[in-house]
Amino acid sequence: MSTEKKYDVIIVGELNVDLILNQLPEMPVPGREIFAGQMTLTLGSSAAILASNLSSFGMKVAMIGKIGTDLFGDVVIAHLERAGVHTGMIIRDALLNTGASIGLQFNGDRGMVTYAGAMKHLSLNDIPLNSLQLARHLHFSSYFFQPGMQPGLKSLFSTAKKLGLSTSFDMQTDPEHRWEIDYHNILRHVDIFFPNENEIQQITRKKDTEEAITAISHLVPILALKLGEKGSLTVHGGRRIMRPAFQVTEVVDAIGAGDSFNAGFLYQYLKNAPVNICQDYGNMAGAISTTACGGTAAFQELKSLDQYAKEKFGYPVACVT
Ligand SMILES: Nc1ncnc2c1ncn2[C@@H]1O[C@H](COP(=O)(O)OP(=O)(O)OP(=O)(O)O)[C@@H](O)[C@H]1O
Ligand SMILES: [Mg+2]
After folding, report:
1. By CB distance 3.0 to 4.6 Å, which of 7, 96, 209, 215 could disulfide with 135?
2. Is residue 19 pLDDT above 80, yes or no?
3. Would you say the pTM of this structure is higher than 0.90?
4. What CA–CA distance (Å, rounded) separates 305 from 264?
């Protein structure tokens, strides 16, 4: 990437491990024990999966978040560093536990239990705002998992914009189903908003996706709406683009598909590619992510996303290099 900045992207967000239990005979019920056929301990969290995958694509990425000084914290750091992510700005607090998500995969669906831990304690005061100018782009993930960041998020984004960065935001789900977020004001400082259908319906209190799109799309330059197996929809400058998903014959799991979409999209966005190409790369990275366990495994051996796309999908995506 040709730039004089130290980083292409600084990502602020939650950090945790995922312990994924596959091949369950049924969902566990109180008072009984069952065997899982397979287990993976890997990097979890929307922000970290994005960081790892963007770095695997060749972007220079730095991560800011909060973890403990425990073994799960070591797993997070080791995984990010193996992917080439700069971890020097991650805060390690000896009094807090690193968060963990336990994923139970059964019958093509999954249940998750998350202990948020240290991520809940990250606040704007922890973030060295002058370091933002080291990057071209700022991304923030997982609003509802990080109550400590909520009061300062608008300020984080507006500071980044004042320093000349572009910005993106993936709000993610609200496990407490309250969906309280001042999105009108936050999105004023965001260039790309990366929700899924349920998320925009919930925050706008609309039952219909079309109504939710109408309520959101004029607030932000690019709305990139993730639609799972249906692909994605973007609204940009009054123009809508619907692009179908790439066909995956054997889906292992959809963990991190949304974050991988963000990574593919930003990879092209930061090369100044047009929105339709960003979107195709988002769809492609989301699809690739479903071919391996967790959100990062499919990209670990990746030499080039463009090459991989040709080999895996026979898809000659026009791209900006
Ligand atoms: N089964 C699938 N087959 C092909 N592509 C998929 C599949 N699932 C997801 N994708 C691709 O990945 C993108 C993002 O996935 P999804 O819509 O599930 O995001 P999300 O709801 O934000 O997920 P997450 O739980 O990771 O936050 C989709 O827009 C699509 O392009
Ligand atoms: Mg998502």
Report:
1. 7
2. yes
3. yes
4. 9
